[in-house]
Amino acid sequence: MQLFSILKKLRVALGIIFLLLTLALFIDIYEYFEESTFSKILYLQFVPSLLKFVQTLSLVTAGGFIIVLLLTLLMGRFYCSTICPLGILQDVINYLAKKVSKKKVFFKYKKGHPIWRYAFLGIML
């Protein structure tokens, strides 16, 4: 249990760092950051690295895209809960809502509907 606690604190710390770095890019109205800083901060973000990969078709320049895919295959939701700013923001809002709300149960278990999953997958393919 000790290892789980340490890993969770590490994940939260990394998530806050990625969120603050991405937020700094969005609120940089006085252009303190150079253009090269943008590419360094957004290197592990899925969409910017995917666009760079499609644009250059080079694995060297778009390594972030490959790293994100490998992390997702090996660790599952690691990208969404640690690197992606939207996933981190959702976790922060959920945490704050649990602290403020008087409701005890936020998410209830519901049985999955595989027919919807496979139908959606078929439509997307």
Please state the structural category. mainly alpha
* Whole-number count of domains: 1
How many individual β-strands? 0
Biggest β-sheet description:
none
Overall morphology: globular
- The N- and C-terminal alpha carbons lie at a distance of 41 Å
Q: SSE order, as H and E?
A: HHHHHHH
What Rg, in angstroms, do the CA atoms define? 18 Å
Mean pLDDT: 84
- Percent of residues in beta strands? under 5%
Helix content: over 70%
Protein name: Putative ferredoxin-type protein
Organism: Geofilum rubicundum JCM 15548
Keywords: 4Fe-4S, Electron transport, Iron, Iron-sulfur, Membrane, Metal-binding, Transmembrane, Transmembrane helix, Transport
GO molecular function: 4 iron, 4 sulfur cluster binding; metal ion binding
Structure in words:
Pfam families: Fer4_5. Keywords: 4Fe-4S, Electron transport, Iron, Iron-sulfur, Membrane, Metal-binding, Transmembrane, Transmembrane helix, Transport. One of its GO terms (cellular component) is plasma membrane. The protein is mostly helical and 125 residues long. Helices cover 71% and strands 0% of the residues. The protein has one domain. Helix 1 packs across helix 6 and helix 3 packs across helix 4. The model has no long low-confidence stretch (mean pLDDT 84).
Describe the secondary structure blueprint for this structure:
Layout: H1 2-26, H2 35-41, H3 46-56, H4 63-75, H5 78-83, H6 85-100, H7 114-124
GO molecular function, one term: 4 iron, 4 sulfur cluster binding
Transmembrane segments: 12-33, 53-74
Organism: Geofilum rubicundum JCM 15548
